[in-house]
Queue: 3 jobs
Job 1
Amino acid sequence: MSLIEKHDDAVRVRFAPSPTGHLHVGGARTALYNFLYARRNQGVFVLRIEDTDAARSTRESYEGILRGLRWLGLEWDEGPDVGGEYGPYVQSARGVLYHSEADRLMREGKVYRCFCTTEELDAARVEQEAKKLPPKYTGTCRDLTPSEIDEKLARGLPFVVRFRMPSEGDVRFRDVIRGDFSFANADLDDFVCIKSDGRPTYNYAVVVDDGHMKISHVIRGDDHISNTPRQVHLFNALGYRLPKFAHLPMILGHDKTRLSKRHGATSVDSYREQHYLSEAMVNYLALLGWSYDGKRELFTLKALIEAFSLKRVSSNPAVFDLGKMEWINAEHFKTLPPAAKIELVYGVLEEEKLLPPSFEVDLSRPVDLKLVPGKEPVRAEAPAEGIRAYAREIPRIALIIETLGNRLKLLKDVPDLMGYFYRDDYARDEAAVNNHLMTKEASSRLSALAGEFEKLQYFDRASVEETLRGLAERLMIEAGELIHPSRVALTGKTVSPDIFWVIVLLGKAKTIERLRLAAALGARGIAAS
RNA sequence: GGCCCCUUAGUCUAGUGGUCAGGACGCUUGGUUCUCAGCCAAGAAUCAGGGGUUCGACUCCCCUAGGGGCUACCA
């Protein structure tokens, strides 16, 4: 094998979004599969921006797409911002190429100028539809004589460039995922390559670019299957080597229609904003249309690169299931090292403004990292700017995360799960308060418990538990009779992590304060009723 | 209207003529327990429908139905 051939066989794939909206999950998955295929085969991953629709393309969208891809960890080797051998990578900057290639096709008689107006075209289409005929270009300008063309040109009439489609025969191509296709040329049309404003159409620009960028595999959504025969014609007409095609199944919403806004969040931005882990998003997207062996489901990006294969991409559409993605998110979160969890949780606490400077917890004596059973003390890294102010809060966050354990699955649940550790105006469950706090017994018990805690020298978990259970014994009640109202008094909810850890982490002063408040509330409530 | 794609439990999938149709999420039940989560154990649930081909079809062919795509000077 010569060096040239070797070069031609190199895997080069591309993700080619048009900057007309946010990066949605379907696009992200297409990008992911391209990325994985490139990395798996030591290939090159190209990012190309298809902005030939001047009216709909925006700068914000362009930036959003790049941001989304970076968040997912899908770094490209060639692209608009990083450059590369075959740039520019933005179609609006490749006009010269499109025109020179069109001129070449024109000289070879493979395309022709069409002077038909939009009105004429529309009228013809309406007529065809009325007669239940397939709408096709009528071919008015297909065989204009050179003098007719010169005459129209001289009059300055606008024109488009159309592809001269053979009226007979058929086109064939193979799809890596779906096998062989054959389309009758008669069903295709003399589609437009260059619009009257001089810009290329999608079908034309894609082929010129894929050809010139030496794309070896076109991996894209299956909504492009029916565009492929036109593109194959163009590849042949232009004399480019035909890439291999791989069409991915569509991603659907829960009602099995194309995924759209009304199905919930469809942009990868919104998942990032909701604090989903990018690794989880990548993992879930990978599974939407691809499987490794039908068994293994948890992968890091790195593991996906090892495992990915186009051969195992499914051909049926997949429904996006948030529930499964959240499970995958939880699984990935579990595997994070403590320091990473702290950083993530801290970020959410800060963003949700749950770190009010006024909220002082009495941590001077009791809470110590050594209290985490079976764990090495967690040492926070040198605090970054902004973190300094709360540096002494870091160990406590570490302990809260530790205590929360598996209950913390989604970062977006942090406010709900941790709010009562940081604010006195935490959410209270109305029913829980009524059921557990508004009784004479609860009121006196909580008051008694507060009194017992008051006497404690060391507010560690063992002392706290011993104190509570001891009181229960003396009152001749189940420990639960003390635990349940305490939980509601301290957290506002009927569910929380281990109550003794909650008490310790809340600190002695705060615990007693809330127990007394609840006791008073109960006494008042009873007197009032 | 024409051309094309898709169809295994609620969902993602394994399966390539002979399997008790496997796994996962979710769901149900039981166990552990201060609640919840977790964990452990058990369980319900699937080959869209109809014709063929074959000794034998989830697997091959045809039809129907449903969903989707293209048929633009959108991509």
Job 2
Amino acid sequence: MPRSPTDSTPATVTPPAVDLELAASQDRFIALWGEMASRWGVPRTVAETHALLFVHSEPLDVESIMQRLRISRGNASMTLRTLVEWGIISRQMQRGERREFFRAEQDVWRLFATVARARKRREIDPLLEGLVGCRVASTGRGREGTQRSTHNDRMDELLSAVRLLDGVSERFTAADGRGLRTAAVALAKLVGFIVPAQKRAERSGIRGGGT
Amino acid sequence: MPRSPTDSTPATVTPPAVDLELAASQDRFIALWGEMASRWGVPRTVAETHALLFVHSEPLDVESIMQRLRISRGNASMTLRTLVEWGIISRQMQRGERREFFRAEQDVWRLFATVARARKRREIDPLLEGLVGCRVASTGRGREGTQRSTHNDRMDELLSAVRLLDGVSERFTAADGRGLRTAAVALAKLVGFIVPAQKRAERSGIRGGGT
DNA sequence: TTGAATTTTCAATATTTTCTGAAAGCTTAG
DNA sequence: CTAAGCTTTCAGAAAATATTGAAAATTCAA
């Protein structure tokens, strides 16, 4: 590997002539994706790594990722493993090459479907399991029985609502991601909502983060 | 106000005879909800507070909440404020009473719709805004132009996918929560997935994150 | 098998987020 | 106006999470 020990330029990814503007755009996206991720409870570097692989169509090796994102080897390793587990990036080893390369799922809808499925597993399934255990034995007697029934009714209502959403999502995020897109489009039509090509800022001062 | 100054009993919520089994069930639910919340990136105590108010049909005052959940006054205050901002609990002051009482939205679908809307605002809207800024000026020239186009295409694809989902969710989570339920049911039908009126344990060993 | 090129693991460290508690701020009765 | 009763604020403590870095493990060519 022809890299001098004095080498300190971070541009491992691209040999000499880099398109700086393009790189800057990519960096903006990486930052944005990382930023969003923290709101979704996903570690920043995990999202950044994914973003890098997503915008960089050719597969990258660990070294390049480390350098472009300025993260440690250990972090890169764990992060990549996580992403592979989630199924949104894949390892690619090639004969003649010792190191592994990684590439991201490029299809947006498949990406979404995969993420949705992962979240469902982590966030919905345990809820469904747990809810049944939150009921209380009904005694059937007077006022105590009534209170208990009310409680159970509440739990049941919650349970069936979650089940409904769960069932739907299960069908729509199946494997190829087609379902998700279909669902979105179907729904859009259903309400007569046509997706505009151009975005319109209907409301500007939305939020209320207070202070 | 008939409370002696020596009064120190913590049982503000329930006078003497409490249904311990019921309380235990409620606690299980509170714990479960709190547990789930941490996976969704919501502070545990925020979720627990909401859970308590959700299972406890009558309004509760801050003191009761603090004691039942064993949290500090400050935490309770901030937490309640958050929940009120999210729109899933409401303050209720009453003449003759100095303290405030809180009660949770009891309708599950409205609850979901509200939460969905809040998340959309925090997690989707900033993404939409940010994405446009991630494009790169197309030069239109040779290979550099091609790379740039590819990048922009990717961003556009992402953008329109997010917009589609966003638009749909916007319509379906509007205010009353009816939309969400409607959507879920509609989708369920669309794929031939019939929601049973009575819960049926189709799969028992639901399985899970199987290693 | 050896050893050079990688990747993985994990204890230690850094960072971020959440919670506490005490003091300051309101509001209303008197 | 003053005081009692409640609520909010916020700096710092505590807890939870994320990241590093270097040693150990793995892999493969020779």
Job 3
Amino acid sequence: MTIEFTYHKLYSRFGPQHWWPGDTSFEIIVGAILTQNTNWGNVARAIANLKQAKVLTPKKLYSLPVSKLAALIRPSGYYNIKAKRLRSFLGHLFNNYNGSLKKMFNRPAAELREEILNVKGIGPETADSILLYAGGFPVFVVDAYTKRIFSRHKFFSEKAGYHEVQKIFTDNLKKDARLFNEYHALIVRLGKDFCKKTNPRCDICPLK
DNA sequence: TGCCAGGCCGGGT
DNA sequence: ACCCGGCATGGC
């Protein structure tokens, strides 16, 4: 069993996942921050609130007082800290790129990654999700499901760190954004269905 | 009905 | 370089 073969196995089992569930690169970035340790259903509610309030653009969101922003994203949980995190990203975007995502993404992925990792509230997974799903860069996203599933299947230790896990995937796959996109989405799909922290359905796991 | 979900930060060792 | 408590809603 290899990393690459596992991808094909998941794809034939579940089919294309059509990620990221968002229409614009900005919506994807907002979703990436809001989904931190949070069920996507709650994030979808928060994003629906932002759309209904017609503030889902960088300029409009940044012009919103943090208290109003927090109220709109309340369903996503951790709403006070996430409101600050959205604002810290927006501050970076306006201070460095005049609020233009196009400008922000018009630079080398490695440099941009280091840069946004310095934004308070953007960690490795959020940064990589932004680069891959909003920027289209071939960067592999590692999340809790990735670690749990692949350590259980003995690809690496359960104590392996983010970058160690990421390297294993990137070293064993063609460097292709489309592939990385689909693979991560399939891993999340597998995780939700079969590899929850409690009640894992390891007996009928498609990878077994 | 407690426990968890597509993490991250700040403070401590 | 890790480890831990805190952050919070909605679903099962």
